Amino acid sequence: MDEVQSIEAAVLSFYRGGSEQQKETHKWLQHVQNSPHAWSFCWELMQLNKPSEIQFFGAITLNSKLRGDWAEVPKEAHHELKQKLLETIVVFGNGPKIVLNRLCISLGLFIVHMLRHPTVIEEVTNMFLHEQLGNLSKVTQIEILMAVLEGIPEEVKNIRTQIPRSVVCEELNRNAEFVMQTVVTYLNEKLSHSAVEQHDMNGLINAAKCTGTWVAHGNVHLNDREAMVQTLLKAVHYCYWKEPKDDGCLMSEENELAETALKSLANIISSYATQNAKYSFTIINYMRMFLDVLVPILDAEYKEGNDNENLALMVYALFISTLECFSSAIFAGIVTDSDEVSKVYTRTVDMLIKCTDKPGTYPVDESCSTYAMEFWYMLQEEVLSMDSGEHKKRCLEAIKPVYAHVVKVLVRKSQLPTESSLHKWNDDDLEAFRCYRQDIGDTLLSCHDVLGDLMLDVLSEALDESIMYLSYDPQSTESWTLLEATIHAFCSIAQKIEYTEHQQIVKLLKVLNEIPYEQYNDKLFGMALETVGAYSEWIGDNPKYLPSAITLLVKGLNSTKASQATLGLKDLTSECQKEVVPYALPLLDACRTALQEGHLKNAEMIRLMYTVGNILSVIAYDNIILYLDAMVSPCFEELQAHVQNNDRTEATKARVILRLEMISKLFSSLNIRKPTEHDGSDKVVLGGQKMATFPGAQVAGGAPQPVPQPVQPILLILEKTMGLLKTLCTIWIHDETVIDTLCKALQQALTNLMDDIKPLLTEMCCLVLSILNTNCVVSAADIAGNFILMFYKDQDSRQLMVQLFTAIMDYNFNQMQLNIGKLSRIADLIETFYAFNTRISKKIPICYSEVQVDCMKLVDYATKCIMLPEMGPMKKSVAFITMFVKESTNHPVMMNVILAQGENIVRSTFLCIGGTALRTQVEIFADIFLALNFRYPTQFIQWMKLLEIQNFPTAYVSASDKEQFMRKVIKERVNKRLVQDYVRKFAALCRNIVEYETK
């Protein structure tokens, strides 16, 4: 079997074999494609008597060789290659399409390589225009020509050519007008007929695409593109109005041509976006043309479930794109003496109001309304960013009625689907609608920025209307959606509402407490609960409305919407912690009942414990102890039962994690010494500890005598349960999830207790040590690091902290040694380890001198970790090296390490910049250069001489470029922005990437 037969067999095997076989075959075929022989066998594969799979492989092989291996073609063979290409295009001119498309791309690639010949594009174009390609029809030749021309600018981005890119771009610019003229002439000629022949459609589509790909070239002013814009609009107009459509739906070819023309129009506009001010008059003219031609199409499609929805979407996308690029020119029409500009602005706003208010429900009946959201943000941003003055005031007053109307539209559009309509919805639709409602919420925030307090009046009217609508048919179970949408609107703007006792909010809260929720869908109740939570901060400023809020949320605990109720209580007890005291005990009783009844989901139980902690933090100490026994004991009793049974099943594990997470959430909020704003008590801070003072408690000199406060409740809990937690840890020591959850609970305790944890410090450290020595999960290293940072300088705790520090270092060194060469496997561990060491380097660098730790190994591993592909460990390792270098000059042990490892650090940094790290991330390595240059300037100059090594860090960067980079970096010791810029540009050179300056 010769080579071609082997390739054919492999191709058929690839397309018709199993997945395992495909993998191996694909690898072999790629190898074959890369071989120099591919230039010859690709033509043999492209014979009409071959199966289409083999023909296609031949075509993509030719593509691949032209794109990446042009240097293998001798100059004298260029003409022969061109002839073969044209002959093969003739052979496949009538299909298969998949092969012909690839051959068109190949001809485009050939033309790019030949751009040194100034007439190559004209020659090829004239060849097709004058029908010089065999027996192919004129229609087919034009279709092929347009496909070839369309692909040329795109291929320039991906091709490896021997011509400098600057020359390529210059040639594209020089040829652009010839190509554009050819394309526009063809489009106009065809569209001028009363009817376009069906066989011309592919040529027209390719021509329309061509205008979009070439528009960035030619150095032509936007106002000189008017003929092209008119032609593309003519194409859209023709496709839509050419004949009555029985079913209202465009044929696929007409639809594709119209959409392609709209995309090209958007490309034309966006190509000039950086020259906003220059083309104000032109863009107003173009927008008027868009409005004249395209709005009638939108009006015709202004209905539910229309068949040309995607075309309408493309039209709206063009308008939004134009507004994004030239907003100031169009928004000048808000208040202007120019009648034309004013009309364009007004018509645009009217059109986008209709877009927002598209008939039907998004996304099942319509999909356009979401497009207008961006406009309402842009318009308010434009006006609010104006300099304060009479003009801004006039603009603001002019747009307020518009936004008031938009608010009512958005409320209506955000209505949830009713139960009777849900059969039309699938999971993707429901998710799209969830995102759509979020977008509406964000847009309502923009509306509030414009309307201010007037927004509450508009929503208050909407609330009245929705209640009235509900009362029209009290028996209806589906009339609740408008009320729910109105409440959702109030909820969306809660963050904007200031402390004032707005009567509209008072009315809202009253309504929320009066709705007979049991009569309607539970989603209405869920929205009400979410809204009460959203207004927690406002209720904190207006506490007389707290009882009704609590009543509603407690009612929610016993409903199907307990999730929203627990979220609302969490927010309410956080924002109104002091104000909740009079209602604390009944609220705690309600929480206890909900937890005991067992109907809450795990997440709801965990969240409710946060509320419990918030409330316990502000009640009398005796009551704290009582409620702790009642509400926390069940958690530990269940854990004790699991420990006694030594049960390690998956079901038990889930319960253990739940109980630990509940305890953790309680620990995060329970703190009787929380720092608060002045609350009327006589608490003062002495020596970092809060103490209570009482009248008459005096010492000599009249100073008040501090009286210690009671023991922190968390400490009491830990003292009673430390033995249980140790046993639990022993049983589950090899399960990362359980150990991680336990450590997070201890971390929450430490965060709230701070120095108060000292009575239990030894026991907690021993527990953490046992974890570090067996299963150093991320949270164990975190809590150990916090212990060390807090207590290392405490002489009583020094030895314990040294043990923790040593345990962390030993465990991580051991893991890195075990995974050397495959450090990505432990990326999370490395990220945590070097984040920990960065904190130590910054806060207590003396550790590295006083503790027996191998700092040489620590830095050596860090230089390996900066070369990892994962962002987390790479960034944390860079941060560690930078901080270690900065602090090292004050500590001889650290200094010796840097002097020994400096060259290695610089070498690894260069390798990262040269290609190991993502190009978007290379600027971070400037930190290492700056630190070394600042602390070790003399040695840094020597280490930088690594660049003198030939082909280091890559073969693409020249000696002079390296010399220039060295000089610039060595010169800068503090200007981080400059060094980042040098590093970014050097990285581009190392990777043979041309970095264009942004203008």
TrEMBL record:
GO biological process, alphabetically ordered: protein import into nucleus
GO cellular component, one term: cytoplasm
Record keywords: Nucleus, Repeat, Transport
Recorded GO MF terms: small GTPase binding
Domain called Importin N-terminal: residue spans: 25-91
Keyword Ribonucleoprotein belongs to the record: no
Subcellular location(s) per record: Nucleus
Chief place where the protein resides: nucleus
Subunit description: Interacts with UBC9, RAN, RBM8A, eIF-1A and PAX6.
Family classification: Belongs to the importin beta family.
Protein's UniProt name: Importin-13
Species name: Anopheles dirus
Taxonomic lineage from the root: Eukaryota, Metazoa, Ecdysozoa, Arthropoda, Hexapoda
